[in-house]
TrEMBL record:
This is Acyl-CoA synthetase (NDP forming)/ribosomal protein S18 acetylase RimI-like enzyme. It holds the Pfam family Acetyltransf_1. SUPFAM superfamilies: Acyl-CoA N-acyltransferases (Nat) (SSF55729), Glutathione synthetase ATP-binding domain-like (SSF56059), NAD(P)-binding Rossmann-fold domains (SSF51735), Succinyl-CoA synthetase domains (SSF52210). It comes from Prauserella isguenensis. Residues 1-11 have a biased composition (Polar residues). It comes from the Bacteria.
Amino acid sequence: MTEQQHSSGTDETPGPDGPDAEAAATEGTGTGGSGDAAAANGGAGESGEPEPDPFAYPHEWEADVVLSDGGTVHMRPIVPSDADRVVALHSRLSERTRYMRYFGAYPRIPARDLRRFTTVDHRSRVAFIALLGDDAVAVGRYEGLDSESAEVAFVVDDAHQGRGLGSILLEHLAAAARESGLRRFVAEVLAENSAMVRVFRDAGYQVSRSFEEGVVHLEFDIDPTEDSLEVARAREQAAEARSVHNLLHPRSVAVIGASTDPTKIGYAVLTNLLGADFSGPVFPVNAEHASVRGVRAYKSVLDIPDPVDLAVVAVPADQVEAVLDGALAKGVKTLVIVSAGFAEAGPHGLHSELQLVGEARAHGMRVVGPNALGVLNTDRRVRLNATLAPQLPKPGRTGFFCQSGSLGTAILADAGSRGLGLSTFVSAGNRADVSGNDLLQYWETDPNTDVVLLYLESFGNPRKFARLARRLARTKPIVVVKSGRHAVRPQLAATSTDIDEASVQALFEQAGVVRVDSLAQLFDTALVFAHQPLPAGARVGIVGNSSAIGLLAADTARANGLELGIEAVDIGPQASPEEFAAAVGDALDSPHVDALVAVFAPPVATPGTRYARALRETVQARDAVDKPIVSTFLAVEGVPAELATLGDHGQPVVGSIPSYPSPERAVNALARVIRYAEWRARPQGAVVRPEGLHPERAQGLVREALPADVRHAADDGHPVSGHPAGRRSGDRDVRLADAELVRLLECYGIDVVPFRVVSSEDEAAAVAAELGYAVTLKAYDDTLRGRPDLAGVRLDLASDHAVRTSYRDLSEASGMAEIYVQRMAPKGISCVIGLQDDPSFGTLVSFGLSGVVSTLLGDRAFRAVPLTDVDAATLVREPRTAPLLTGYRGDEPADLDALQDLMLRVAALGEDNPEVRSLMLDPVLASPEGAFVTNARIVLGSPPSRPDTGPRRLRQLNAPAG
């Protein structure tokens, strides 16, 4: 049986056949006996018709989803007008599917039940309908049983069983149920329907089972677990990878708009497909010619007699909609639109782009583009060049995703000239649908790709990118050029998220992504990854025939934090190739060398080819060399023939030695590879939840602090400004008062050094005595208190007189009677720990040292939550000023463990409470005695809606992607 033959529940008793019955079809829940009770739960009146509570239609639940075979469907909450679709679905179900779902033949459903199935309240009674085009292919629903549990059931069209619809419906139903406050699902399944039992069991939930009279009763909590999240992510990866596989491994290709005019893009695409000797049939589509480039042409894609897997669209933008209609009718799986004139052309083009991608997804199709250069696959079993680039790169083991169509041709030419072979290449143009994230999913399991290169102008879903990149980078290096550091181009705004540069940098560093500043640096680095092993350490050897070039290499190595494992070896300008090879061999054999830089400056009338061959042969003579080697043969760039180890098809493979025209470029590329190897060798760490956390109590405090209209309001990102002691409920954001702040921090074991607010000189003196000397007095006003000259702070006050004098000074300076009195913390290094919410990226924890210089230099480290223990340890040590914490110039080191523990607690607070928009602990005094929080600030707001935090779905099309 399949996942669609789900039977569950007790609320849909088949009604009698007869004049009142309609030939109905739905998936309802139930097997006979308790329909009345379920109907009552749904609010049915005496007439039997449902009267659900009037909750608004949840547009945010709509989603395009990728199925296990790479196709797509559109899923949304059911509405009464879906009745005809439900009837049609039921009419297509086999007898066995109906029996498994309804525990009986159930050929028809009465009109009353049909209305009930399609009229829901989106709260206690929820149903999702999966649509392929205008046809319903699956329905999943739950019916509330009590305040915490609901009964769940599904049915899927026989023709679409085995595509993963059941598991996706379960994810979306569980998310909707949790949003409504439910915690548990129950289901009733026929004992013989083992496939349905597996759907629930394999979802990663802890399912309890009982058996009675041939029926299995299943029950499970729907809160996400580590297992359920892992299952969902694995299924997501497999489905999205399959959708890209369909794109890059077509069995046939149609070129719609194939032209006889050499100046047209339709001519170029067809020419390149034929020139690459694509392994399958190519079908030109041209309404005016019987053949194009000697290949029979067809007036329409519908006239092609054979199936079409991939269609490349090269017609004017105003004709693409009609082309899409024909491709959908033909059953084309994937569309590559090289046509321009969409989002990049303005609002009208953007509207057309969103419409066509939405229509394609709804009919099961993925889209590359518009405004794309195209796609290619160098696999000799495929030989696909569906791009505007005339030359197919040599086969290699590097995958490349390029967001820019205009740069694509130059990128491919540059890769070819350097001897960098590619496995696959996708230039997505406007990236309206298929994105870099889809390619990351594909390359993770692609056996033909070892290195991943990305040229990105913006992010569609940065949070998902971080998750995918971090997982992929553990096995395959990712090198990225990220342009657009300051703003997203207007034409990309609808499919992009503009995020802070600090967030981008944190994303890359945490994920192990190698970020470079230019395409030249990208290829420099890729050549090492593609042809050389990863080093075991950061000790570099330098061998050459020029002391000047060797010195440049050594200086660059030191500037990159690399260690010279041995003294640079200068064999002199008159040395023979054999002497050069011997020196290289000695360096490789040294236990103090992890990587080698070989430099050669040709003396007059001495060609470098013999020295290059000697270098290559020396390396090849050593079995399993595990030390990367880069070289500088001046004016030689890439992998020349003399340095290449050739594969079966004549292309450079692993073991080839890249050459760079300058020693600086060679060493810089090697340094990036070494840093990546160090990241990969570090333990991944574990997400740590420190002891003594009370998230339930914290949530209660948050709910109490946030007015109801703010808790449920849309997140509009308005900043708060105002008095440090109060909150302003009229704002979208709410700043916690001191007492609220202290209680919330205490829920996570974060103690603020004791303080009180006083409003008179006598009260200040009394509180100081109560807290115990020494104390500090601080201005109540944020601005004065935070001045770098400490004008608003009086430290280390050890007497009644000092307190009174300081109170008068601060009160006069601030113009306020209120003053903070706080017990002095042990002296230490002032640090700042922050938590900030990025609506698209998620929550970031930051760490740095306090002070104007650190602020001006931006000397702050960032990591995304959840934090691992390794993340916390890295945060403390990453700022350039961090050596001040470890015993600089003989000072006693601060307690770094206490700082790390504090950051883990801050991260847990942010992860558990999405309403926390920002948190700042400033300063935290780090000393040998511990880490002491002396000042804090927390701002709450409505919890943001973030991508990649719920059930599986493709990026939304109706708003800037996030």
